[in-house]
Amino acid sequence: MKVKLGKIPLVYPIPIVLAGADVQGRPNFATLGDCGIMGLNPPLVYISLHRDHHTTQGVEEHQTFSVNVPPTSLLAVTDYCGMVSGQEVDKSGLFEVFYGELGTAPMIAECRVNLECQVVKAFGIQQRRVYVGQVVQTYVEEAYVVEQDGRQGIKPMTALDPIIYGLDNRYYRIGEMIGIGYHEGKGYQQADEA
Amino acid sequence: MKVKLGKIPLVYPIPIVLAGADVQGRPNFATLGDCGIMGLNPPLVYISLHRDHHTTQGVEEHQTFSVNVPPTSLLAVTDYCGMVSGQEVDKSGLFEVFYGELGTAPMIAECRVNLECQVVKAFGIQQRRVYVGQVVQTYVEEAYVVEQDGRQGIKPMTALDPIIYGLDNRYYRIGEMIGIGYHEGKGYQQADEA
Q: Given an 8 Å threshold on Cβ–Cβ distance, is A141 in contact with B12?
């Protein structure tokens, strides 16, 4: 029996990221869950920002942004970056900041993974600006890089320890590994062919 | 010390959902992680599909789709729906299907949460079609609905037990609750004002 709860964008769980942009010559970071993957080759990710957000100014100006994935040890400062606007608080001193090849997408050294992005599409919808960025470089903290099949990959999600958000306004950590992609469904396939 | 891993869209963790559409008169479901929130009022979500996907045909035809969030108990069939195309396999019998007010967005009864969506924006990028959908109704299985502050809400993510995916091609379950939104950062705010 289903209950109608009205109009809620109940996609869950969602990643918590810190979107970075240079605004008026200073690095600024906004906490958001409106971020995801749009393509793989070349890789595309999006962020959705309120058009009046401080961060939005910087992305508009430089057409670049970063996506920084904080571990749970950064929960307090990550939540803080979602509570206050860069219009009122200078967030540039909260983190150790570095830049990559684009030069205008500030990234957070304390985050284990950083994506440096060039805007390839932008549009307005409602009071939002949505930016689709092509990843020009992916930075991973050395301790989380592993050799896999002769090339460099990343440690499991449980080691990366990201912050997960639900629309219940709670933060969660990731739980145990439960399966492998394109493998768990093989039983169904065989039953289908029998 | 950061290592450059090249161009990887390493946003994580990502939700695993089953996107539903009626294709050639039959319900079809595609497993994807390229799904997220784009706006809140009214609620907007997106899905990104390969332009040649079977599901894409149905969304193009009806300009509607559903987002169904499977619990971990549906891992095998969810993985299976990502392994085979509706062009070759009829997926309409895998689930108990129901429809809502739009009439053309098939939803999965076994999923605890279903979003019924009307396309409000669509665009092509690379080999993808991206559909932004406005949620016209959110369906939640009765056992997961709770009363909160005099209105209906949902149980915690740990009860909903969604499937989480990482770009390590592993599935995970959700872990423990670690904090409350717009609350964990208060210590930073007070330190700032002191």
A: no
Chain B closest CA to A175's CA: distance in Å?
4
Q: A63 to chain B, minimum CA–CA distance in Å?
A: 17
Half-sphere exposure of B92 (CA within 13 A, CB side): 14
Closest A-chain CA to B132: A125
Cα of A71 vs its chain's centroid, Å: 12
Percent of chain A clearing pLDDT 70 (strictly above): 97
ipTM score = 0.94
HSE-up (13 A, CA, CB side) for residue B29? 28
pLDDT for the residue numbered B59: 98
Residue B170 and residue A177 in contact, taking contact as beta carbons nearer than 8 Å: yes
A contacts of B191 (beta carbons < 8 Å): none
Give the mean pLDDT of B155-174.
Answer: 94
Determine if residue B129 is left, alpha or beta; phi over 0 gives left, psi from -120 to 50 gives alpha, anything else beta.
beta
Write down the residue that tokens 């890089």 correspond to.
A145
Strand (E) positions, chain A?
2-4, 14-15, 17-23, 26-32, 35-40, 43-50, 64-69, 97-98, 107-108, 113-125, 128-141, 145-148, 151-154, 164-165, 170-180
pLDDT of residue B78: 97
